[in-house]
Amino acid sequence: GRVLIWDTESWAANTEETIAAMVAGCASFGYDRIVGTYGGGTLNQLEARIPTENGDSVRVTVPHAWPINAAIAASQAFLGERPFRELLFRNGLPWGMVFDGLPGAGGTPNPEDGTVVVVGELARVFPGALEKFPFRTVRCLAEVAHETELRDRLAALPADAPTEQRAELRQAIDDGEPFAGATLTLPDADGAFRLFGTYGNRIPAENGNLVLPLTKQGWYLRTDGSPGSFARLLEALRRARIEGLEPLATVCRDMTDPVPAGPTLNLELTNILNRPLSGTLTLTLGNLRIEAPTSLTLAPHQTRTVPIRIVGGQPSPDNTYPLALVFDAGPDGKAVHHEDMHVNRISRRTVTVDGDLADWQGTLPQPIRLTAQTGATLEEVAWFPYRKLPASLSSGFATAYMAHDDAFFYFAARIADETPDDGTVRFDNRDDNAYYYPPVSIEFDQGASLMATEAVADTADPADTGLLQHPTDEGKRVNGQWQYEMPSTAFGIDVSIPGGQPCQVAFFIPPWHSHGMTFEVYDRKTGRRLGRETADGARNYHGLYLKCNAEGDLRFRVSGPAWRRVSVAGIFLDPPVMDDRGRPVKTGKVLPIDYDTSGNWRGTYGRQGFHVIGTDPRLPDGVTVTVPRVVARKEHVWPEGVRRYSYRRHPELPSGTNTDNVQIAFNAIPAGDPDSICGPWESLAFPPGTRPGYTNYDCTDYEYALNRVAPEYGGSPAGALAMDAGTEIFRLRAPGLPRKHFYPRQPRHPLEGAVRDGRLASRRDGNTRIVECAIPWSEIPHVKALRDAAKPVKFTCRVNDQAGKGCMELARGRSVAKRGYAFHVDWEEHWTNEVEFGWE
Fold first, then answer.
1. What pTM value is reported for the model?
2. 704 close to 730: Cβ distance less than 8 angstroms
3. DSSP 8-state secondary structure symbol assigned to residue 164
4. I need a surface site. Which of 6, 195, 430, 663 has the fewest CB within 10 A?
5. Which residues contact 468 (CB under 8 A, 6 or more apart)?
6. Beta pairing partners, 250
7. How far apart (Å, rounded) are the C-alpha atoms in residues 585 and 505?
């Protein structure tokens, strides 16, 4: 039977305004059970002291419910067990999710008990989902106007404008903005249609109309239950007035023939509104001359392919042609789209796989950028594949090349990479047992005696008052800390102060480092605890000071939970605090915590001495501060004949999550084909009542990791040329190979492993990394069939960097793609394999 799909702990909706959208959205995705909200955000147990009749007090626990509970109750009342039926607008916006009524008499759904949830921006409810939904290019009209203003400002900058100013404007253009000013309006049918907000409160009509702001908030629509009222509500919604949204969703498909051949660029334009749309179309495509219609008319929710023919112009050296599209629909709004287009053509030539890209000269490049870098430099390096990248390109840029002959598919990449990497293991013969705990394991005593400390330091923002002021450099701050070292969850600081010279000792705890912290003071000679305090992490916005009077040999022990490392950033000595009788307060008694001074300690603390971690200490004569290390350990020998279990922390995976490599992938088998990678699970990508591409879907049939093998596994050093014996083409995906991530001891499938007849070369020249490979056609028969039939193939590649530079994928940001599952591993950002290539 069908596998039940549970949302176990996504915790997507932690504010009440998103509850309705989250619950309805998850139901429309096909989930059978929905969680979606963090339990601790709904209910807390608060402790309080209650006075008793005899003058004492008792500590009680009081349940405290947060306002989000009202939103959860509303979703339970209006949705609950009601089954999801369909999307109201399958080829348009906003997102309207229709739910059937609960069973009535005879067990059949009550036709008047249905609920509709309307959401403007469903993607903003789910973290990281802005680019995962259909129509992801559609914005509100307010953002379209703002982007036009930003682009005008960028174009008006003088040639000598600061680089930072240009970068700031480009970033503002790229940053998406939440929907604002968009609405859906429908009549309330004399009160028969009813609108409810996030808490379940009824929203009154305005002049006989229900007006729904189209944001990430979900709105409930129901009826008065009269016969036929729910069907009339659905019809009224289909005719409702939608305003404030960009009227067109735009998908641009690259050219697959060279510019001199007069290729066609196809635009897929969708009218996302529920009414006819007419307007004027204005297009430019770099310096190319084009033939395009100047006016368009689309029916409600119609998707129309508009061919744009290239009739003149010179090819661009970097194979990049900026598209600017404006569709002005008058009162229905303006759609604006900008995207870099390319000629996607796989060259016909035979390549020698030797790490030298000279024989790729003249092949059309495919630039891959993390940021919008432009200029003659990039055009030049893209056009000349055999040249070393300029020193200014240290990361975030690559150029890919593709070719074919009768024996192989060829791929090459030239990558800006400033962090050399020797490579990884040879996965075809990886010793899986090496990834488990060794024959002798160590147990550490987690008791009070275990204390281990490490010093850490990072860059310091002078404006960050949560960091301590530098002792000598005015205007600077210090970001140094002592914190416990795993496996310990505590560390100690030993302070010795000569007898008869009591002083106050204050410890600065940086912001967010006191959650779960316990601070204890011990007499080192007797072992007796003199004081104890638990800091209030919720108040530690700017750092806090834990203080006590001190004299003699003391140990200050700081402990905390294993999941958050507590730390100390500074120690300050001042005159002792006196009691009401003029005597020093008892040594070790913790004084009131200072939550207010923040990192601005100068003039308040340290009058007798200090040690700001990361700088030289300045302590009075006779005063010493040391960090003890107390580690008790016991060895355990694994029993003979028992297989060791439990992973070490980070096993290497062939997909290259922690090494320099390249992944390539083909989407060559149409959905529904018997060889389709999806097989019987294909329907899960399109839950009943939704549309293709609504949720994630499989889009890669063949995937390979191009790995360099490290010297200790038989490879070559990073600076040397590595070929065949020093490299490995590892098969990650193929028809019949179940999707897996190739963890150690994961059962091996006959189709996985190294490509025996392939060729791979890898070398480095300064900041330039070169990868070049050949895949035999026997490896990718479905790709060969498309080539032989002169049909386009969908292809993409991904550049990985062991320094973690970000998502470097060929399909990233292109309108034909969305974020999905093109590559391994699933938990990285990927873009669907939808970019088409033709064959020379």
1. 0.79
2. yes
3. H
4. 6
5. 477, 478, 508, 543, 569, 570, 599, 601, 612
6. 269
7. 12
